[in-house]
Amino acid sequence: MIIMSSVICDTPTLAERYDKVSNSQFEHGKLLAEELNIEKGDCILDIGCGTGRLAEYISGIIGNTGRIYSIDPAEYRIQVARKKIEDKNHPNISFEVGSGEDLNNFADNSFDTVIMNLVFGWITDKKTALSEVYRVLKPDGLMGITTTSKGLPGPLMVIKDELLKREPYASQVGSNIASGRSITTDGLLQLLIDAGFGDINLKFRRTYINYRNSTDLIEFIEASHFGNYLDHVPLYLRDAYRSDYITELEKRQTAKGIESVWNMLHVIARKPSENVY
To answer: What are the start-end ranges of the E strands in 175-225?
Structure first.
């Protein structure tokens, strides 16, 4: 089975930390849920649910007559999600290890809405994933995506790209893994069109987050990347790269902390009704 990304570097500690530091992801997910007009009684699929914060929020919207199925390839994050709802009354929510590229456990035309909140960049086979989402959506169902765009890097991503152009990294690292995960806005729109989606609506949102210091920011990055954020750097260069990156971050330290800018795309796409020709 194809999985969305390598999660072998994830740990229980990183999963627990992510649950505590993923406020920015959670807030974008809440906005996406609002844009999708999720209602009581809806059947939802949350792909790349992480530790389940957004799924738990949505479960309160759809009520006991609705259902949200939540999948993620990172087993430790699913464990955190399950643990959080053990003592709560959430009969309408489930968490399972699973991949966006393989939705064989779900029948055709099953879901009113499919959500991919800040996970699309991690999906290896985006074409297959969108085909699977299209299949499991009901006619007239909606898919919502929040993602970064390759053409709209935030300042901290620019720092990484500039650092990788220096020696010894330039001749040893090659292409930046983050750039490989990203997709251009035009590329994303073309994939959606090729998959059969229509009524595509795209919004750009810029958000600002201040981290107290470089330690807080690095911990956020490590937790958000399953421990993989340096996997594009050879092992023997990672300590030096991490040190150089922290140095560059600390140059941007102010009384308010280190500012991170997120340039986000919110995309809503509809599976056409069966009677649309």
So the answer is: 198-211
Look up residue 97 and give its two tokens. 């290890």
Rounded Cα distance, 82 and 102, in Å: 21
Can you tell me the distance from the alpha carbon of 92 to that of 129, in angstroms, rounded to the nearest whole number?
24
Distance (Å, rounded) from C-alpha 45 to C-alpha 132?
12
What tens digit of pLDDT does each residue of 112-143 get? 999 999 999 889 899 999 999 999 999 999 99
As a whole number of angstroms, the distance between CA 256 and CA 248 comes to 17
Q: Can you tell me the distance from the alpha carbon of 134 to that of 145, in angstroms, rounded to the nearest whole number?
A: 13
Count CA atoms within 13 Å of residue 100 on its CB side.
29
Q: How far is Cα 159 from Cα 261, in angstroms, rounded to an integer?
A: 12
pLDDT digits (tens, 9 = 90+) for 82-117: 998 887 878 899 999 999 999 999 999 999 999 999
d(CA 83, CA 182): 32
> What residue ranges in the chain does DSSP mark as E strands?
43-47, 67-72, 93-97, 111-117, 137-148, 198-211, 258-270
Nearest partner of 48 among 87, 1, 5, judged by Cα: 5
CATH-assigned architecture of domain 12-153+180-210+261-270: 3-Layer(aba) Sandwich (3.40)
- Round to whole Å and give the CA distance between 162 and 134: 38
Q: Structure pTM?
A: 0.90
Cα(159)–Cα(136) distance, rounded to whole angstroms?
40
Query: Whole-angstrom Cα distance, residue 125 to residue 265?
Result: 19
